[in-house]
């Protein structure tokens, strides 16, 4: 399944961003954090630290997201999250954020390779999901130029 969503960032103070300013830049150089992953989550919260029975996935497959975010006039990209590449025997996850002029491009791909994961490998699944959660909550830093 391939979804292509286009999202225009009109207001930085929206649900998907958090305003931040450092003490010496409150009035001169405000900074905005924008989360490029604007819709949905691939991360699952796994409560238990161990498992008695194997994990059964709904199915194998490949899911992709691609978002384009227009940067408002008066802002430039200060910093972008590094790409994330996680590859295991049971699944893989890759994401990337790039800036092209006044557009942020975010893409990610999540692939499930197996239908079942042994209970002994549950720790690997917890680590995998934790890394996805961390990636999904990273921000691009925009700096006001005016």
Can you tell me about this structure?
This protein has one helix at residues 122-136, and strands at residues 5-7, 17-20, 31-34, 55-56, 61-70, 75-79, 84-87, 91-100, 103-112, 116-117, 140-144. Residues 1-29 have low confidence and may be disordered. The protein has a single domain (5-36, 55-144), classed as Jelly Rolls (Sandwich). The chain has 1 helix and 11 strands; from the N terminus they run ββββββββββαβ. It is mainly beta. The strands form 3 sheets. Strands 1-5-9-8-7 form a 5-stranded mixed β-sheet, covered by helices on one side. The chain has a 4-stranded antiparallel β-sheet with strand order 2-3-11-6, with no helix packed on it.
Features:
mainly beta, disordered N terminus, 4-stranded antiparallel sheet, Jelly Rolls, 146 residues, 5-stranded mixed sheet
Uncertain runs: 1-29
CATH topology call: Jelly Rolls
Please name the CATH architecture: Sandwich
Q: Please work out how many helical segments DSSP would assign.
A: 1
Tell me, briefly, the overall form: elongated
Helix % is: 10-25%
How large is the radius of gyration?
Answer: 18 Å
Portion in strands? 35-45%
For the record, the count of structural domains works out to: 1
* Strand arrangement in the largest pleated sheet: 1-5-9-8-7
Topology pattern, helix = H, strand = E: EEEEEEEEEEHE
- Give the tally of β-strands: 11
């Amino acid at each position: 399944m391939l979804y292509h969503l286009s999202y225009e960032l009109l207001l930085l103070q929206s649900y998907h961003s958090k305003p931040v300013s450092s003490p010496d830049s409150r009035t001169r150089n405000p900074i905005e954090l924008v989360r490029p992953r604007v819709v949905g989550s691939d991360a699952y919260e796994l409560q238990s630290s161990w498992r008695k029975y194997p994990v059964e996935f709904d199915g194998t497959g490949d899911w992709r997201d691609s978002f384009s975010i227009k940067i408002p006039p008066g802002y430039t990209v200060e910093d972008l999250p590094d790409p994330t590449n996680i590859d295991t025997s049971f699944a893989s996850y890759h994401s990337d954020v790039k800036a092209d002029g006044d557009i942020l491009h975010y893409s990610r791909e999540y692939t499930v390779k197996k239908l079942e994961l042994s209970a002994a490998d549950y720790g690997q699944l917890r680590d995998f999901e934790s890394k996805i959660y961390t990636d999904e909550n990273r921000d691009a830093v925009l700096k006001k130029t005016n």
